[in-house]
């Protein structure tokens, strides 16, 4: 399957904020359309009925970024061509150009920010921005937890795809066997639409050629089913259900397991992934991946440590063989022998097991800890199991509807 080309999908990428725009209200009064918490389907319907233009949508998000970003620090830079690209898509839609019919994302800006501050991971800017309505949808990158963890912390949806399902071309690499790019959105549906747009073959990333076999005919959005939990065998890894003194969160997750059962899932309890405590990642792999890169410019200790090595030797090759063996004897054997469709864990603590196996994970808002921090529920599976994970996560999301916008009480903007 060829990788879809979507130059007309707007990119609000990475510290240049356009300060010449006048703020737009969150609701266009004459049209009764609220952009706060709007979904892709909401926006496409507004486009169809001439209630909204791409230019107005981009102006709204630029105004939000200008207002909130000095405090939230979720966006590093905005594409200076964003308004020009918005005008172009408005024209394509007005003239009914074929390209305007190709993608759910046509005319919708995509945010791909990065921040180096808490909460949780290098893609936290993507999660913060979507949660705070600085953007409708965004992209994140993950080596181990950098999509799943910030998504959970910000009460949004994150998909960490199978390695090679989406192209890593242009992404600063850390580990070729673990790096992946995936959507961070407010709903499972929006995440599925973005995954449809970015999954596919890119000859600049040879891993996408082999992995394209997992892409379903008819796209991922077809798996957005309210009955998606019916008949699914889901394994419970109790080692990850230690909530300490947070009895409220423990009760919340037990209720969620009950919801899964009532929705038709078959829960297989008290399972354990062999060798999960031994899973780790070798920084020596970075040397080979970063060949030719000016890693010293990034000023990151991990990259510098990798550059100081001699690359792959016997020790490193043995470590990679261990990772493959642990995945084969752990995650793969458990899911296969128990005939599971997915595993379920609280938060993103299971991310390392998924990372070293190149396996997908999908996290959905699940509740709040004692300190008020949001917590997600994570569904993981074998490589290529995104369709099942989307079915499960969407059905859970529709049955619970837990997400709510963040409160900015006490913050000065």
Describe this structure in words.
- The chain is α/β, with parallel strands linked by helices and 413 residues long.
- Helices cover 35% and strands 14% of the residues.
- The chain is built from 13 helices and twelve strands.
- It has helices spanning 40-48, 54-72, 82-94, 124-131, 148-153, 188-198, 207-211, 247-262, 285-289, 301-307, 314-337, 351-356, 386-400; strands at residues 11-13, 27-28, 33-34, 110-112, 137-142, 157-160, 180-185, 233-237, 266-271, 342-346, 361-368, 374-380.
- The strands form two sheets. Strands 1-4-5-7-6-11-12-10-8-9 form a ten-stranded mixed sheet, with helices on both faces. Strands 2-3 form a two-stranded antiparallel ribbon.
- Helix 8 (247-262) links the parallel strand 8 (233-237) and strand 9 (266-271).
- Helix 2 runs antiparallel to helix 3 (82-94).
- The radius of gyration is 21 Å and the shape is globular.
- The model is unreliable at 1-25 and 280-298 (pLDDT under 50).
The dominant shape is globular
Mean pLDDT value = 84
Q: From the helix content, strand content and strand pairing, which structural class follows? A: alpha/beta
Strand content: 5-15%
Query: From N to C, what is the helix and strand string?
Result: EEEHHHEHEHEEHHEHEHHHEHEEH
Which helices and strands appear, and what pairs or packs with what?
Layout: E1 11-13, E2 27-28, E3 33-34, H1 40-48, H2 54-72, H3 82-94, E4 110-112, H4 124-131, E5 137-142, H5 148-153, E6 157-160, E7 180-185, H6 188-198, H7 207-211, E8 233-237, H8 247-262, E9 266-271, H9 285-289, H10 301-307, H11 314-337, E10 342-346, H12 351-356, E11 361-368, E12 374-380, H13 386-400
Parallel strand pairs: 1-4, 4-5, 8-9, 8-10
Antiparallel strand pairs: 2-3, 5-7, 6-7, 6-11, 10-12, 11-12
